[in-house]
Each structure stands twice: as structure tokens, then as C-alpha cells.
Amino acid sequence: MLDFLFTSDAIMALLTLTFLEIILGIDNIVFISIAANKLPENQRGKATNIGLLLAMVQRLILLFFVSFLVGLKDPFYTIETSWLHIAISWQAIILFGGGLFLIYKSTSEIHEKVESPKHDEKELKGKKIKSLSQAIMQILIIDFIFSIDSILTAVGMTNGLHPNHNYNLVLMMIAVVISIVIMIGFANPIRKFIDAHPSMQLLGLAFLILIGFMLITEAAHLSHTKLFGNVVGAIPKGYLYFAIAFSLFVEFLSFRIEKNKKN
């Protein structure tokens, strides 16, 4: 296990996944803060911390559930025609459905942030919260909604890294725990940074579109899909790491240029 966690692939996956989990968690922090701010001041910090810890617990539970389904590799139905061959398994269905969901969710989130960035926040602000228990219940619902794309991203980033599926699960769990701990400790600085550089969140959502396409091709590859005699191959994760690292490098260069202009 330790040998795997210290391989270059595992370290790159852990760093990239932790970064994406934090970027995806920004909206979660914002909505938790809105719900918590409706409480008396002495209860706000408690509600925020409880909300983030519940987010971590929900993500870990969902990871176990989704990982179990992804581990069901044996095909239960085969489509065989003159031009198409697919061996359908639960693993392929979860990856394919997850890929479609990430593409849809990311595209709609990007559209909403560009066209009406404060729409969901206004809706939440309009809801009444009178007690800590009501706030925590509201936060639980928010956490669940934001957990889905987080879990699918984790599966997309780690699936296939190691033949033993439990190793990949441990890697995902470590990334989730690290990201939540960072968000608990640095929630306000992270939120201020994203508010000052909203392009970072849009970049994170764009990465999810890439991961969504990768999940779809991986589902086709693991289903041994043949289209007109051509086998669908898997996209090496190194390409994804390079695309994310290069995009972030360009983004930080842009930050540097803007900072120099202000100075």
C-alpha cells in the first residue's frame, strides 16, 4: 500500500484531486456560510465546521458506495452486431453516467456563473433558518448536492491507477480528508482568493469537462467496445495531468502579469 501511495502516478493524482476537491468545495463553503450566517454569531463558526465535517463524512460514505459499483466489472449484457460490440457492466454504466453528469453539471455551472452568478445564493438567502438543527439540516442537503460531482471527479482521477481497487479507494479518501481539513482551516482565505480570481473556479469546472470525457472513453474501453472493428482505447491519465498543470501554469502567469501591472 505505502509503495503505491509514493509512486509518481499516485502523488500526481493525489495533488490534482486535492486541488480539484478544494476548487469544487468553494461553492459548498459559500452556501454553508450563507446558511450559518442566519444563526446568532456565537453559533456560526460551530455550524460551518459541523457542515464541513458532515461534507467529509458524506463524501466518504458515497465513495464506498460508488467504489463498490465501479468494482463490479463482470459484464451482465453484451450487445453484438456487425458494426458494434459492447460488454455492459455496472462499472461501465457508472463511469459512463458519471461522465455525462460531469459534462452536464460543469457546462450548466459555467453558464450560470457567467449569466447569473448570484442566483442560487439569493434563493438560499430567502429561506428561513431559526435554529442550529435547521441550519445543519440545510447544510446536509447542500453537502449532498455538492458531493456528487466531487465523488465522480475522484473516481475519474483514480480509476485504473492500481489493479487493486481498494488502493484507489484509499487514495480518494486521503484526498477528500485533506481537502476538507484545508477548507476548515483556510475557508475564508480560500474564498477571498477565488472571489479575487473567479477564473480559477471556471478553470476547475473546465477540468471537470475533460474528466467527464475521460470517464466516457474509459467506460467504452472497459466495456471492450468495438466500433466498426476499431477498439476504443483508454486515455492515459498523464495527458490529463499535463493539461491541468499547463493550464494552471498559464493562469498563474496571468495572475503575475496582472499583479505587476497594478504595482
TrEMBL record:
Predominant place of localization: membrane
Membrane-topology descriptor: Multi-pass membrane protein
Transmembrane regions: 12-35, 47-70, 82-104, 135-157, 169-190, 202-219, 239-257
InterPro entries in the record: Integral_membrane_TerC, MFS_trans_sf
Cellular component annotations (GO), alphabetically ordered: membrane
Protein name (record): Membrane protein
Similarity section: Belongs to the TerC family.
Superkingdom of origin organism: Bacteria
Species annotation: Yeosuana aromativorans
Compartments it resides in: Membrane
Keyword annotations of the record: Membrane, Transmembrane, Transmembrane helix
Keyword DNA damage: no
